[in-house]
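Protein in question quoted in full.
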Amino acid sequence: AIMEDLTKGKNVEFCTTHPDAKDGIRPRIKVSAKGGKLMNAVVFIEKIEAGKPWGDFGKANYDFELCDITQKMAAIRKPTKAEKKTGGILTITNHDADILHNPHGYSVKGASRKTLFNKPLPNKGDVAEVTKNIGRLKQKKDSHFFLQCDQHNFMEADARIVWNPYYAITGADGSFKIDGIPAGKYKVTAWQPYVGETTQEITVAAGEVKADFTLAAK
C-alpha cells in the first residue's frame, strides 16, 4: 500500500474524516491479497462468438464519497450506438457536499495514457454520464481503464475493458465463477493491473470446469 498524506492535498479537513485515515495518513491499496489469494483480479474469456446477452455486465457506476472511490475494480464495455444516446454504461456520482471532484478517465497502455473524459462535479448529487465518451474504445488498443480525481489524485480506481460478458472479479478469497459458457475450447486470462496477467486454455463440456491461476508480481 502507498501511505498517502492527505494533509498535503485539497479539502484536508473533510478528506481526513475518511474512516481509514489516521493522523492525516490513509493507505492507497493497489493490490489486496491474503494468504496468497488475490482479490480484485478480473478473469475473462478472450474470444467467444455467441452465448448469453450482456445484461448488466460491463456496466460501472462509480461513487465518489469521502474523498474516495468506493469501487476499486470493475469491468466496462464499449456501448452500442443506441447506448451512446441513452447512457447507463458508465457513470460517476459525487456524494460529497461542497467538495469539487473531477473524475478523469483514461485508457492506459504501458506508460502512456489516453484521456477518455474529464468531467468536473462541483456539487453533491452531480452525475457524470460518460457512456458516450467511452464509445471510441477499440478492442486492439484498449484494455485497461483508469479513473482518477484531478482534485484529489489519491482517489483511484481501475477496470478491465471487456468485449464479452464472460468475466468475473475475484472475491476476498481469490475465487471467481463464470457461468453460462457454451461448450468449447477457450483461452481464459486472469488480470490485475499492478500484478500482471496470465492465460491458460480450458475445455468446457457439460458441468463445471475449474481453473486455477497463479499471478506473480511485476
